[in-house]
Specification:
Elements lengths: L6 H7 L13 H11 L12 E5 L1 H12 L19 H15 L7 H9 L9 E8 L4 H20 L3 E5 L6 H8 L6 E10 L27
Antiparallel strand pairs: 1-2, 2-4, 3-4
Helix pairs in contact: 1-6, 2-6, 3-7
The structure holds flavin mononucleotide.
Flavin mononucleotide binds next to β3.
């Protein structure tokens, strides 16, 4: 598990895992990952991130709370309302392909919701990472937290671990804040992340999300 891989290889290997083995991840590994991830750049070196790592009973309790919750008012939305093209189609395609691979047809809404709810179980992962910033921070600071998150995901890959970044937890921002102690400070939950070892036999983990070609989103001038 200590195999060293190049950054490009880690970028290629990282993918969102949606079924984990229950094997625990040692606290030392999580600490090491977060410590290194904290070398992420941030505007003005504000380092505006706050991370809560939960495992064991505190995480189990949060999973139970969310499973029995009737839902909360979200503090921010996962996507802008009335998502437009080409994003609307991309999002739709992602969902369709993912459900197709696990054999859940569009009409079977209860099964789709059941699958969605697995987010609240971290897809079986033993560790939940919750990324916050101060509520009064601006957009650039949210981008800084995103850079920290990407570092975490790549460092996980380097250690044979896998992740699922999860906007899902924003639905339960208050429950997460209560479980982590973030409620005592003026923090806002940006996203959660499942961390653990992929269940390589799981069909859902065979899914590979595609990408748009470089030409469709990057332009080059003056080279
Ligand atoms: C900020 C963010 C939030 C996400 N939220 C969820 C989520 O709640 N549940 C989930 O299953 N995947 C979630 N994803 C994973 C995306 O669906 C995934 O990154 C995308 O489809 C590309 O696939 P890949 O990560 O396997 O390359 C999220 C990704 C990001 C970056």
């Amino acid at each position: 598990m200590s195999e060293k891989i190049a950054v490009g290889e880690a970028v290629r290997r990282r993918r969102t895992v949606r079924q984990f083995r229950s094997d625990p991840v040692p606290e030392s590994a999580v600490r090491e990952i977060l410590d290194l991830a904290g070398l992420a750049p941030s505007g003005g070196n504000l380092q505006p991130w706050r991370v809560f790592a939960l495992a064991g009973e505190p995480m189990a309790e949060l999973k139970r709370t969310v499973a029995s919750s009737e839902g909360e008012e979200r503090e921010h939305q996962g996507y802008p309302p009335n998502l437009w093209e080409p994003y609307r189609t991309r999002r739709f395609k992602n969902g369709e392909e993912l459900y197709a691979i696990i054999g859940i047809p569009r009409e079977e809404r209860p099964r789709r919701l059941e699958q969605l709810a697995k987010n609240g179980d971290l897809f079986g992962a033993p560790v939940g990472l919750f990324f916050f910033t101060e509520r009064r921070m601006g957009r650039l600071q949210w981008a800084d937290v995103g850079m920290l998150m990407q570092n975490v995901m790549l460092l996980a890959v380097e250690r044979g671990l896998d992740t699922c970044p999860q906007g899902y937890w924003v639905r339960y921002g208050q429950a997460v804040a209560a479980a982590t102690g973030a409620e005592n400070e003026d923090l806002i939950l940006i996203a959660g992340m499942a961390l653990g070892y992929a269940d390589e036999d799981a069909v859902i983990n065979r899914y590979r999300a595609g990408r748009e070609p470089l030409e469709s989103w990057a332009q080059f001038r003056g080279f």
